[in-house]
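tokens incoming
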């Protein structure tokens, strides 16, 4: 009897221990002090980190051939510095590169292995540094969680290298990235699982906070996107017909900030460096204001449609 009792007790203990370990692993994702010491990329993945990076490099070269990259050193170096600071405060393991695409679209996207592209149109609507940082942190989170290669693994795309670059563009704001800048690709390939989008929001806000920024920068950039959508209805409805807008995004982020990010005495909101860089970026766009013609957006089907230049979001 006694031995049986001990056995039951021991079994009870180990089950409790197992449950505790599982919940510790899970809760690490909710604890920004554990950033860097937690694995946020768990899951089946056919791609080694090296393979993932080689793939990303190849796709990045394709993007650079197709899009106009801003090489103004003040802008390029600023964006790189901002991105590296966020990446250092993330769960991502490998190196990153950050580049600016000259395009009025409001967007940013990441390729596997740490190649992040920011559109000048995003810099335009981000009045403050924490807002741009929020969008970039979201992209870094896609890379840290290895969403692209995990997704590819899931859908058993065995030979990713033969597929056009755009397929793996994890756009922060949505389809505009793929439709603009000459990156036209089939709609059916464009969706990140909604849970991956939520996870990138969730992790990205933590990286923003860990880098010292005001995490509500994420809320204000979301709100600006929403306002843009309201002002220009119809421009993104096509995208949303296949990928419905997630109305809870702002609310979920507010709850996260409240629940898991301990309040600090002060946060970085913006800098004079940011203002100078933004001014310079907008000055490059200025000639477009006087040009009468609308920019042309390429649809996934390859048809060119005149369009207002507004990104969706996802
Ligand atoms: Zn995303």
């Amino acid at each position: 009897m006694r031995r049986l009792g001990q056995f039951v007790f021991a079994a009870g203990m180990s089950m409790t221990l197992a449950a505790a370990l599982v919940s510790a692993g899970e809760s690490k994702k909710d604890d920004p002090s554990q950033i860097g010491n937690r694995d946020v990329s768990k899951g089946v993945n056919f791609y080694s980190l090296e393979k993932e990076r080689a793939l990303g490099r190849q796709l990045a070269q394709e993007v650079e051939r197709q899009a106009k990259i801003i090489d103004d050193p003040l802008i390029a170096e600023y964006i790189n510095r901002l991105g590296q600071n966020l990446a250092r405060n993330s769960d991502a393991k490998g190196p990153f590169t950050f580049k600016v695409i000259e395009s009025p679209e409001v967007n940013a996207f990441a390729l596997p292995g740490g190649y992040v592209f920011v559109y000048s149109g995003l810099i335009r609507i981000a009045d403050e540094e924490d807002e741009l940082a929020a969008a970039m942190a979201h992209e870094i989170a896609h890379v840290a969680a290895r969403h692209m290669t995990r997704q590819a693994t899931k859908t058993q795309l065995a030979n990713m290298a033969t597929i056009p670059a755009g397929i793996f563009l994890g756009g922060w704001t949505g389809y505009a990235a793929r439709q603009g800048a000459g990156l036209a690709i089939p709609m059916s390939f464009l969706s990140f699982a909604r849970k991956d989008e939520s996870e990138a929001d969730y992790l990205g806000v933590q990286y923003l906070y860990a880098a010292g920024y005001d995490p509500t920068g994420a809320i204000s950039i979301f709100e600006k996107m929403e306002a843009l959508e309201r002002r220009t209805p119809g421009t993104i409805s096509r995208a949303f017909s296949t990928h419905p807008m997630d109305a809870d995004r702002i609310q979920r982020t507010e709850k996260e900030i409240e629940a898991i990010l301990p309040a600090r005495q002060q946060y970085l909101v913006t800098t004079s460096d940011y203002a100078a860089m933004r001014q310079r970026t907008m000055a490059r766009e200025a000639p477009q204001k006087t040009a009468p013609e609308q920019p042309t957006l390429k649809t996934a089907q390859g048809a060119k449609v005149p369009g207002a230049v507004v990104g969706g979001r996802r």
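note: DSSP finds twelve helices and six strands in the chain.
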